[in-house]
Fold this protein.
Amino acid sequence: MPLLRALQRLGHRPTMQDWPGLIEAYRAWLPVTAATPVITLREGATPLIPAPVIAEHIGRGVKVFLKYDGLNPTGSFKDRGMTMAISKAREAGSEAVICASTGNTSAAAAAYARRGGMRAFVLIPDGYVAQGKLAQALLYGAEVLAVQGNFDRALAIVRDVADRYPVTLVNSVNPYRLQGQKTAAFEVVDALGEAPDWLCIPVGNAGNISAYWMGFQEYQAAGHCRQLPRMMGFQAAGSAPMVLGHTVEHPDTIATAIRIGNPVNREKALKVEAESKGGFMAVTDAEIIEAYKLLGSGEGVFCEPASAASVAGLLKRHQEVPAGATVVCVLTGNGLKDPTTAIENNDSKFHTGLAPETDVVARVMGF
Ligand SMILES: *Cc1c(COP(=O)(O)O)cnc(C)c1O
């Protein structure tokens, strides 16, 4: 953010309050005008965290960074798109929004819609949404409709409803979502001073990979970076339509945020693959969980299982990374969203039922 750098040069010590949220920070790059009511929770400005343990696994001088978008206000990158989509819906006079969601979209839609004084309707696949995400949608005051079908079916229904009734659709078919999400690429370049060589990212509906690519391209055209990254999109093996080249009828994976068989942004993402010389690759649930545990216990970073697909993919394809390259892995959501998966998948020792005695505790500790 150039303004902030100018202030720093004048001796101003930056605080979090200097960050106005991504619409104000990147206003010139976004389709907003003076008439747009900016609905923000000061999303964006998430940290780019060095990952030395993962880099060590890869070796050959490769540098690895984690774009930890789980630190957005509702705990996922969906806030980037939602501040835009909801601000534009409000500008258009909309009084209600609707989305289908594997969880994070509903949490973000609910928070931003309520902040903008609108009603939020969210359709979720009954039984396949992580606990934390459901808690958020309910607490933020959404009207939650759990349908007995998967995400793809829920999306077909909300598209139909938005066609026929006065509600604004805020899934990633809404073009303002990708506009907001592209700011994550700006932040990566602002932090590194250049685009990375590889960008590793989990892929569900393939909106985020398309948004990042748009951001990198716009920044390069404006001279903020010289190069563009190869865009490496990772899907769960049981839910990998971009890898297989066809829709998956019954997507299945522990990474519920990317449990999507028919990606909305398929065509856009195929262009990204071709233009960036990138690729779509699958990682198994076991590989996702290995990366998820390594991120937690090795790097001290707790992300949700879907997010760990980016790191699982990097570890799986590490031999293809050029020596000395800079790699950014996008961690799309916060681990606290899905405590169940963490409790059921870790290598930690958990001693229960101990007598409340120093000797007992010390003995268990190995003293
Ligand atoms: C939405 C989501 C994704 C997938 O993003 P797409 O834009 O649908 O490809 C990945 N991880 C998390 C945590 C998400 O919430």
